[in-house]
Amino acid sequence: MIILAKLVPLFSGSKGNSYYIGSSGQGVLIDAGRSCKQIENAMKANDLDIKSVGAIFITHEHTDHCKALRVLASRYKIKVFASLGTLQALEYADMLDSRFPVEVISKEAVVGDMLITRVNTSHDAAESCGFSIVCADGRKATVATDTGCMNDDIRRQICSSDIAVIESNHDVNMLKNGYYPYMLKRRILSDIGHLSNDCCANELADFVKNGCNRFVLGHLSEENNTPEVALQTSLCTLSQAGMKQNSDFEICVAPPETNCKRLIF
Question: N or C: which end of the chain has fewer CB within 10 A?
Answer without folding.
Answer: N
